[in-house]
Amino acid sequence: MTVSNVAELLDSGIILQEIHIKGWVRTFRSNRFIALNDGSTIKNIQCVIDFENTAEETLKRITTGAAIAIKGTVVESQGRGQRIEIQVSSIEILGDSNPDEYPIQPKKHSFEFLRENAHLRMRTNTFSAVMRVRSKLSFAVHKYFQENGFNYVNTPIITGSDAEGAGEMFRVTNFEDNKAPVTEDGKIDYSKDFFGKETNLTVSGQLEAETFAMSLGKAYTFGPTFRAENSNTTRHLAEFWMIEPEVAFMDLDGNMDLAEDFIKSVLKDVLETCKDDLEFLDQRLAQEEKSKPQAQRSEMSLIEKLKFVVNNNFKRVSYTEAIDILRNSKPNKKKKFQFPINEWGADLQSEHERFLVEKHFKCPVILFDYPANIKAFYMRLNDDGKTVRAMDVLFPGIGEIVGGSQREERFDVLVEKMKALDIEEKELWWYLDLRKYGTAVHSGFGLGFERLVQFTTGMSNIRDVIPFPRTPQNAEF
Ligand code: 4AD
Ligand code: MG
């Protein structure tokens, strides 16, 4: 059997066999023991050097961060902490790493420091684990949809339409600095720009995905989306990845079922495929919890939390019921909410969402039937004339992880809605066409992939679950 990396080696059970392995030195102690990591697993392999027969010059170059190639024999380990180790017969230094300069020293670094060294942070246990889990999660996402008859659709990244109607878009233009032509009334003349119209980076692929639902039946997107909202929080990015399924002939109940089944399936998947990494992250979080006051500690470990979500039903509650609960809640009466809930119609803030999930229901919650005027134009109006068939899935520690709705499929109602919001028909003529030719009930949702990775890995800041975060004032790397 040949093994090509440390993960395979540890899985293989081979012993007394000659192997070649390449990786980066994590630590080198007593001039004898190299902890080697090649990124294939959270686990290091211990490589034991015969230092008496190794040149002094070579020994000096075995430093934290150096890339090395090892030849040696797999033997049972004499020491504690590992089952096997490699008795090194030859070592080659592939790339030196100056120990006085290498930022990733074998000690605890703050996440802030590691963010500034995002190009190297995947060489730490925590970030390598997070990024492997992220990779497995994205595969689980595709697997779920592909196995359930969905078509993967690549919606445009540059777009002329504002899918959410919230105006939080990044402009895409080819005009040179200060040389944009202007119209007679002094506005920038985008008809002369590259695309002949105003264009932006997309905030969501939903509107285009709807065209696929209304032709192929079931579709999903999984791509980058962009929001120019100036929110400096632990849950917002200016560039994030969104998963947006869209299904014809499915109503809001079906949409809630789909969201719940989908989330449970992908979590179940990574509980199996990412055991070692999740165990490591579980322990990391347990350490972090220990440093908090008792009252603020989480009742469940990371893995317990994941299993809890997989094994329990999400609680489904209407917006109206939720407002009643919040209005009568202790923090509201004691004026502990920053935004008190006094009346029906208020938009929920994350403090309210978290109260419902973490304190009141103590499980994931799906809120539905929101007031029309706090939700996007495309959501289906209920018969009461004031609520829409919207849903948000709320998660502990995260708040909103999914936002979705049944779409307004009635041409006249949609046109009315757009008029009221000053959205021009000619901007979305193609979207309206779907309501003219063979319209039908259809629904979908968007799940913020980074929020899912956050929940799965227990990382508290969203900047630490995407390789190179884009946030206000930051686009390094
Ligand atoms: O609720 P949102 O804005 O919904 C939409 O964009 C719909 N078009 C989706 C659909 O129905 N197809 O965003 C969906 C999800 C949120 O629930 C959240 O998880 C995530 O996207 N999200 C963000 N994640 C990170 N940073 C941000 N700035 C985010 N904004 C939204
Ligand atoms: Mg939302």
List the main descriptive attributes of the protein structure presented here:
binds magnesium ion; binds 4-amino-1,4-dioxobutan-2-aminium adenosine-5'-monophosphate; 16 strands; 8-stranded mixed β-sheet; 477 residues; 5-stranded mixed barrel; 14 helices; alpha+beta
Protein model, in words:
The protein is an alpha+beta fold and 477 residues long. 32% of the residues lie in helices and 22% in strands. It contains 14 helices and 16 strands. Strands 6-10-11-16-15-14-13-12 form an 8-stranded mixed beta sheet, with helices on both faces. Strands 1-2-3-5-4 form a 5-stranded mixed barrel. Helix 4 packs across helix 6 (252-273) and helix 4 packs across helix 7. The protein is globular. The protein binds 4-amino-1,4-dioxobutan-2-aminium adenosine-5'-monophosphate and magnesium ion (MG). The site of 4-amino-1,4-dioxobutan-2-aminium adenosine-5'-monophosphate (4AD) has 23 residues, from strand 11, strand 15, strand 16 and helix 14.
Q: Mean pLDDT, nearest integer?
A: 96
Number of helices: 14
Inertia-based shape: globular
The distinct ligands, each listed once, are: 4-amino-1,4-dioxobutan-2-aminium adenosine-5'-monophosphate, magnesium ion
Binned strand content: 15-25%
Low-confidence stretches: none
User: Helicity level, as a percent range?
Assistant: 25-40%
Span between termini: 40 Å
Order of helices and strands: HEEEHEEHHEEEEHEEHHHEHHHEEEHHEH
Biggest sheet record? 8 strands, mixed
**Widest beta sheet: strand line-up:** 6-10-11-16-15-14-13-12
Task: Find the structural class using helix and strand composition.
Answer: alpha+beta
User: What's the Cα radius of gyration?
Assistant: 27 Å
Number of strands: 16
